[in-house]
Amino acid sequence: MEINTPSWLSCTQTIALALEVSLQRGLATLGQELPPLWHEWVEEYQQSLGELSDPQVLLAETESAKVWAAVVAFLRVGRGTLFIANHQWQQREWQQVAQFLHPDRLWGSSIWQQQWLKLTNSDLAVTSVHHQTITPENQPAPKRSEPLIGFPTGGSSGTIRFALHSPQTLTVAVGGLRQFLAPLLPSNGQINSLCLLPLYHVGGFMQWWRSALTAGNFSPLDYGLVKEFPPPLPPDYLTSLVPTQLAYLLDRHGSWLKNFRLIFLGGAPAWPALLTKAKAAGLNLAPTYGMTETAAQIATLTPAEFLAGHTGVGKLLPHVHLTITNSQDEIVAPGTVGIINIQSDALFQGYVPQGTGQKEEIFTTGDLGYCHHGYLHITGRRGRRLISGGENIDPEEIEAFLLDQNLVQDVAIVGVGDRHWGEMLVAVYVPKPSLGNDPLSLNQCVKAQLSKPKCPKHWFPVPTLRRSPLGKLNYQFWQTWAREQLDAEEANQDG
Questions:
Q1: Which stretches of 87-147 are assigned E, i.e. beta strand?
Q2: In the chain, N or C: fewer CB atoms in 10 Å?
Q3: Pairs from 6-13 (Cβ < 8 Å, separation ≥ 24)
């Protein structure tokens, strides 16, 4: 379904102003204001782009206020591509990005800029870097009529790339969500957001975009501070959480969460026990499904549906068309699990480093799911399905069982190549701070409830699984790590 958007939203300068006003109002509701140097920062970012016709900018500011200022400045200029980096990346991640991205401008601290130049083996001054982003043919990217914003994505593969969105794709996503939520919003249709997610994730950035385009308030807060001292909540506010955030806040600040008009839940699968607890607490929870490539959610369960006992991630938003197919690209019958394919004007414009101009009419995801009576259900990731001993196994089922039974704090089930099993199941887990969660006890619990092929052959406890702010795991990293642990054990036995 086509979503009509006001003509003023085609002007990036107007959007920049709306973002600034929304932020200013949102900070005021928290008793805060824009930093004294705000306008100076915005002006500096604008001037740094000079007369570049198609500037490529890598943004890695660590201060949230400077990230806001950089986004506003970029949209005021209204051309080029802004790549929003995760400033918490470590050396390995930065090295990946440095292999394919050669920006004209680096926006970040001077120390970080020097580190970047070392990674790229460049002896040029930062202000004189004028490279273009590399495309597959190693040619300069073509000039575009509208600016693009690149959001980092890696999923469970661990390979970093940027998904490119235009202001138009982001705006279509807002229009679809606003239309869907109309009965749940204030009469003026404002979307006021209390944001606890970083802006380098679509889940955080879109909260700002929604608030700005609906004349709402955008109130960003540091999640670490909220964990300890949740602030008084203004009326008619929404927020977005990932399951790990919901679990923590529900245990400690459940009454505070009840004040939200709506709580979107996404980013990673939520285990059944967590949803049951949220329902018992009467939270206005809205489980969602979406991704970076779709500019956040494309399906949402309303709080009323959630509290009434509906499962899954809800009905499709009006700007989305979805089909579910088998491996031969044939549409499957309703209720049958298959591959999720998406059509929408909110789809991303292409990847970097794969290049731009590759937007397809249909985006085939890596997710498996089915539709039942109009409600979408997600069953897992296609790329994570394992074959062990000739059996098809979905690791998400085992992870959900362990979390649902409160047997572990966190867990990742990975498959390691094995001559006998084909793929051997390995559990990497964070133990509960209590007795009875040693590998032998955990293995017995799984065997008592799940079929034998679903029982991990090895259990490795770790202090943390280092989830991203959106609750995602780098499964490729833990698969490699598990392989190394098994190799070390085998070497010790041989020795």
A1: 105-107
A2: C
A3: 9/167, 9/171, 9/213, 10/167, 10/168, 12/75, 12/76, 12/78, 12/146, 12/147, 12/167, 13/75, 13/76, 13/78
From 308, 318, 315, select the one nearest 285 (Cα to Cα).
Answer: 308
The candidate with the shortest Cα–Cα distance to 3, out of 289, 291, 318, is: 318
First and final C-alpha spacing in the chain: 65
pTM of this prediction exceeds 0.85: no
Beta-strand pair 262-265/285-291: parallel
Beta bridge partners of 296: 291
The maximal CA–CA distance of the chain, rounded, in angstroms, is: 73
- The CA radius of gyration of the chain, in Å to the nearest whole number, is 23
Is residue 490 helix, strand or coil? helix
- Return the closest-CA partner of residue 316 out of 173, 170, 472, 164: 173
pLDDT averaged over 10-residue windows placed end to end, the chain, 495 residues: 59 96 97 96 95 94 95 96 88 84 90 80 43 36 74 70 95 96 92 95 96 97 94 93 92 96 90 92 97 95 96 96 93 94 95 69 90 92 75 83 90 86 89 78 88 89 85 86 90 73
In this prediction, residue 124 carries a pLDDT of 41
The beta strand positions in 266-337, using DSSP E, are 285-291, 296-300, 315-316, 320-325
C-alpha 327/C-alpha 383 separation (Å) is: 13
C-alpha span between 259 and 254 (Å, rounded): 9
